[in-house]
Amino acid sequence: TINDLIVKQWYQRRVRGGFGGFGGGDAPPQPPAAETKPAAPAAKAAAPTVSTDDKSSEEEGEEAPKDDGVSILESENVNLEIMMMLHEQECLISQMNEAYKEFDIELVKLRTDKIQLDVELKNGDLRVILLFEELLLLKEFEKRENFLQEALSSKLADRDEMSDKIEELEEKLSNKKMSMEELQENEKLLYDSFTEQLGENNKFADFLTKVFKKKIKRVKKAAEMDGDSDDSDSDDDWDSSSEEEDDDEDGVEHLDLNICPPGCSQELYDATIVMREKKLDLEEAIQEEKKIIDSLKKEVDALIKKNKVISHGVKGAKNDLEAFQLEKQKKMNELDMIVTLNLDQIQYMQNGVLPSDLSSCLVFHSAGVNQLANRIKELQQEKAHQIRKFKELKKSHIHLIKGKKAMQEKLLGLDEKCQNMMLLKFGREVDLKKLENISTNRIAEELKETIAKKDVKYSRKLNEWDVQINQAKQRLLTSTRDHTGRLDTLNELTKDKQDLEGVLDGKQKNLGGEYSGQRKADLKERQRLLQLVQLQAQEIDALKDEIGILSRKDGHILPPTQTAVPPLPPIGGRT
Predict the structure, then answer these.
(1) Residue 72 and residue 34: Cα distance in Å, rounded?
(2) Dist. CA 305–CA 303, nearest whole Å
(3) For all residues of the chain together, what is the average pLDDT?
(4) How far is CA 349 from the centre of its chain?
(5) What is the 3-state secondary structure (H, E, C) of 87-127?
(6) CA atoms within 13 A on the CB side of 416
(7) What is the pTM of this model?
(8) pLDDT tens figures, 473-517
C-alpha cells in the first residue's frame, strides 16, 4: 500500500544516513556477529505493526537490517517512529474528513441562505414594481386631488372669515342692546324723578305732565335744518294739534305750555323744562340705537345666509374629496399584489394533484381559516339551539291560540251581558265612550275655577310687590347718590378746614416786630377766621348727622340750611 511504500523509503533513508550517534557516512560500520544474530526475531516482533497486505515488502524490510547490520535498539526506534507517523497519518486523515464534513455543512447552509436571499430579492423586486405602479397611479391623481384640496381649503377659509364677521357683529349687537337698556333705565329713572318732583295733590300736575311730554322742535345741523324745515314745521303743527285734542278730551282749560301759569312754582316749571330736554335727548339716543340695532340685525341675517351657502359648499367639497379618495383607493386595490407561498401553504388540490393554474385561488390567512373552521362548529351548535327554541315557541303558540279562543268566547258572553244590562237600564244600546265624555266632574271643575282665581289674585300681588321693590331700589339709588355727594362735600370742607388751620398757625408763629404796630387788626382778623372755622365745623357736624340719617333705612331729611359765610381776604396780603 501507499503507507508501506512511505515507510520503506523512510527506512532506506535512515539506513543510508545513519541512526543517531551509532554511525554515519555512506559506509556504515560492520556490526559484530553476536549483535546481528538476534536481529531477526526483533524484526519479526516489529513486523505486526506494518500492513500485511504485501508480504514481499515485509521480507525486504526484515532482510534489510540483516544485510546492513542494524541493532535491536535502532530497529525498535524505527518501529516506534513508524507507529507515530502512522498515528499522525490517521489523525490527519480524520481531520481531513471532519473538514470535508464541515465544509459540506457550511456549503448547504450557504446554499439555503442564498436561496432565501434570492427569494427576498425577488420579493423586493416585486415590491418595487408594485410601488412604482402605485407611484404612477398617485401621480395621475395628484393634480385632481390638489385641485379639490385647494377648493376645500378656500371654502373653509371663507367660512371661518364669515364666522368671525358674524361673531364680531353679534358682539356689537349685544353691546348696543346693553347701551339701549341703560338708556331705557335712565328714561324710567327720569320719569320717576319727575313724579317725585311733582309730589302729591299738586294742582298743576296735569299741566306739568303735558309740558314734560310735549314734543318740541329740536336744534339740528344747518344742512338738516335747511332740508327738513318743512317736515319739522308739519311735525310742530301735528304736535300742537294733538296737544289741543288731548286738552279737549281731558276737559282741562287750555293753558299756554310755553309760559308758567300763575300760582305754579317757577322753579318747578323750569325743572320740568330741563327734564323734558333730558327726556328728548334720551328718546333721540334710543331711536338712534334702535336704528343701529336694526341695521346690525339685517347685516347679521345676511351674513348668516351667506354662511349657510358657504357651509353647503364646504359640505359638497368634502363629499367630492371623499368620493375622489374612494375612487383612488379603488384603483389602488385593483393593482396586482404578488405573494410568495411555500408548497405546504397551498391547500388547493384537484384529485390529489396541484393544478397548474392557480389564478382562481384565494390567499387567506391561516388564523382566518381556523376561525372559519371553528365557526362551522359554532353554527351547528346555534342551529341546534334555534331548533329547540323553535319547538318551544311552537308549543307556546299553540297554547296561546287556545287561550285566545277561550277569551273570545268569554268576551262574547260579556258583550251579550252588557247589551242586556243597557237594554234594562236605558232601553237601548248606548255608546259608552260618548257617555264618558258627556259626564263631567263638578268638583274638579270647581277646583279648577278656584285655582284660576287664586292665580290671578296672586299674580296681581306679585306685580305689586315687584313695583314696590323697583321703587325701593330707585330710592336706594338716589339716597346712595346723595350720600356720595355729601361725602364729597365733607371731604372738601375738611380740606378747607385743614388749610385754614395751617394758615392760622403760620400767622401765629410769624408774629414779630414788623407786625407789632398792627396787633388790633391782627386780632380782628384772627377772630373773624375763628368764627369762619366754627361755622364750617358746624356745617361739617350737620353733614355728618345727615349722612348718619341717610345711612339708615327709609331716612328722610330736609335740605341743609345755607349759612352766610363772610368772604376771606387773600392770604398773601392784609386789609
Answers:
(1) 12
(2) 5
(3) 76
(4) 57
(5) HHHHHHHHHHHHHHHHHHHHHHHHHHHHHHHHHHHHHHHHH
(6) 5
(7) 0.39
(8) 888 888 888 888 888 888 888 888 888 888 888 777 765 544 445
Q: Is residue 39 helix, strand or coil? A: helix
Q: What is the pLDDT of residues 206-224, one digit of tens each?
A: 777 887 777 776 665 433 4
C-alpha to C-alpha distance for 153 and 317, rounded to whole angstroms: 9
Closest CA to 65 of 292, 518, 73: 73
C-alpha cell at 120: 427576498
- In angstroms, the CA 109 to CA 95 distance is 21
Q: Kindly report, residue by residue over 143-196, the tens digit of the pLDDT.
A: 889 999 999 999 999 989 988 988 888 888 888 888 888 888 888 888 888 887
Q: How many residues are given for the chain?
A: 575
Q: What are the residues facing 353 on neighbouring strands? A: 350
**Alpha-helical runs (H) found in 251-265:** none
The grid cell for 110 is 450557504
Sequence-ordered list of residues with C-beta below 8 angstroms from that of 543, at least 6 positions apart, any chain: 486, 489, 490, 493, 560
Per-residue burial over 64-87, b if 16 or more Cβ lie within 10 Å, else e, is bbeebbbbbebbeebbeebeeebe
